Amino acid sequence: MLDIRTFDARTGGNIAYKAFSHPLAAERLAALVRRFQAEGPIAIYDPAGHARTLLALLPGDVQIEGIYVHDSLKIGEHIAQQHVARPLTALPRARVRVVWALDFERERACARLRDILPAEMEIFTLSDIRLPDDMLTVRNTYLDRLNFAVNHAFFRDADGLSTRVVTTNYWARYGAGNVRLWLRLFDEDGRPLATWTEGPFAPEQSIVLESGAIRRRFGLNAFVGQLFIHVLDVAGHDVVKYALEIQGTGARDTLSVTHDANAWPARCYANLPAPREGEKVVLWVQNSHAVPIPAGTMALNRMGRGNRFSIDRTVGPYETVGLCVNDCLPDMRWPGQLEFHSGQHVVRPRYEICSGGSNRIAHLNVERADLVADPHIAHLPPEFFGRGYLLPFPVPDPARYITTVQPTPMSQALGTMPVRIDCFDQEGRQAGSRFLGCLARDHDVAQDLSAITGQAGHGELVYDFRDGGEADGWLHALIRYEDRQTGHVAETSFGAHIFNTVMTYRNEPQSYSGPPPGLTTRLFLQAGAGHPPCFCHLIYPVSGTWHAASRTQLVLHDEKGRRLAEEPLSIPARGSVTLWPHRIFGTDAIERAGSGGYVMIRDTSCRLFGYHGRMQEDGTFSLDHMFGF
Questions:
Q1: DSSP state, 276?
Q2: What is the CATH number of domain 7-134?
Q3: Domain spans of the chain, in order of start
Q4: How far apart are CA 383 and CA 503, in angstroms?
Q5: Whether residue 463 has pLDDT greater than 60
Q6: Of 34, 58, 142, 569, which is least surrounded by CB within 10 A?
Q7: Is the pTM of this model over 0.70?
Q8: What are the phi and psi torsion angles at 367 (to 5°)?
Q9: 611: closest CA among 594, 590, 628, 589?
Q10: Contact 159/31 with Cβ under 8 angstroms?
């Protein structure tokens, strides 16, 4: 386990982690390590509690004489490795030539230390690893979260497969005026292939990064690796949200779409499906840091069972490794599901399922280590919250598509999952329901919705405590879609929320911006020309009672962010609709929008939930849940 502090649901993100793990900072840390190794033992002054995370991410070994603090209440506490905190007053007697003050402001650190240290002691600070000032949004506060709007993307252009990262300059909405991207592409071995900047981008302008175009621009060979994305001069928030498309070329029957917003590594990930007969499942492990992952650190196991398969190979800095699940756990078969113990070394791993000539790719979800069962969820007042937590998902025409739902534990403490599936037609009328039971953590239930409903619309996974069980408010599921005619498959996964209630419970209903209740919608839907037509399955989920119909606006933007057209839409409560932008706005308008054109789905009266995808002429399709700003 990498001994770092990243994200905590109560205190938020540890921005120092992002500052230390940034590739530019890692390069400068490596230079400092070489200097310190030549000096012998060093002492560390840790005024802000950075030592544990920094030393875990240090690209090389440094001999440490001791770690010193000025907070008297911390003296004797375990800090990092084998060190306990010593009083700062003892630092002048340390037998070292170098003191490393873990402060990004050199003058502040030196002012505190210079008069108490012998003249022969040299002071280093974290100012030596700071990013250049022109990469900072808030220059007078280095560890401001807006200085580290970063994320990672799986990025590939090889073997007839290409990738495309798509987002928009949504930071302009909060006042950002000079949004740019700092990018670094790593190859499969973790070597930097290219470092460059993109932008600036106009307000609401689409941002598109295509693997083929980047490969041509820098004269690169085929690659499978990862793209580090740092958005500069942001405003509002530091979350980097994007859609990631994977498309086959030539004879490759592949079209997938996945997304990302979570830039924090986690201890454990779930919703990794076991292979069916004839399938190969590849887990893409991408080291997010400049330190190697030791052999035996990571592992796979069947969900809810302790016997682990240890991954007995070292993964180098920023290296990308494709692990074949079939080889690791040859006896595992769908509908079995797996946990991936990553030891906090990777950010949002992907998995790829290969079957015949087609591939599909999706992301794993963070399995929370900080959650415990919440007994209040079973007793939420129906007059406040109705059916409470809902996980809405599309149900396309059952005559053409098989929809399979597999509930997935997403916290390490969860032992049971008492769940039910409710189905609704497109007008919001109940179209079937089934209690799945109080499922054990290691269950292998995968429910075919054809046995519940014969109508297109949507389904909702909800808690049902008729047979007891526990809940933690982090209800997740993997939803798989299979075309009965072509055999093509797509899948997605997500978690539950409380939707469209006036009363709030903890942080629900969530809002895309601001505090709860989240009663508005702003969703991003690709609609660019020159690509397979995109679509959106838009759902109006209601936990209790809310407006009888949505008051939704669909706004078509061109790739420069300019509005081209607008259309109203009304969805009945608990209803849904499938949207095709080229049918709503016309193919001429989509052509005018350009390759990066998009639709913003806006509603100020309720929170909608959407899934986006593309579909080729032969029926090959992709599907994943949308993100909002």
A1: P
A2: 3.40.50.720
A3: 7-134, 149-363, 375-625
A4: 10
A5: yes
A6: 34
A7: yes
A8: -90, 110
A9: 628
A10: no
